Amino acid sequence: MPWDIALIFFLLTVILPWRGRVKMKKLLGQPQVGTVERLTLYASTIAFQWAMTALVAWRGWIHGYTAAQLGLAMPGRSRLLIVGIVGAVAIGTFQWLNLRRVGKIPIEKRGPLVAIAQRIFPQTTVELLPYLALATTAGICEEFLYRGFTMAVLVRVGLPAWAVVLVSSVMFGLAHLYQGRGGLVGTLLVGTVLGMARIAYDSLVPVIFWHSALDMVAGVAGPKYLAAAPGSAVEGGE
Question: What is the pTM of this model?
């Protein structure tokens, strides 16, 4: 593996998880997080993810990875778009129902979810639009980094399909370690499903839609359910 590709893997596997945990620890250490802090967090994350994606895409191009190998081709465009949109609706609905289920659990038993929801999810309309831009960015950039570039590299080094999906999913899960062990496991499982879909459809298009839908619904339903006590006015006002 070329040194720069190995460096990118180190960044994705070690530096990004460390950076995420440091930022989350800082946020959790604050008594409260306001609009300015959230908007700053959204903007800095968007800028970082696009910069990282541009860097990785450049090195991928230098090493001869094609658009098809990176999952950027669209074989059967209409089919991919239909699968992406229908899947996004289904996954978004499931995400909403799951968060609603979690919202019925006593607030003291939800672990770090409450504190995370209070600090990173949008609390006002002013914060919601930038958050949706962040969710879209994550859907595009993270899918390119983990299901596009990472899987392409693992295929080139000769790993079997199951190992390609597993390794890329572990790396994806580690990037979300700031959510705690539950977030790590949950994201690893989601990454496995997305990885298998990436192979099945030979494109990133469907998984970009699905990933974006997961994050968008989390940002809308998270403040409503995760940080609210069961039976509270926030939850009961639906």
Answer: 0.91
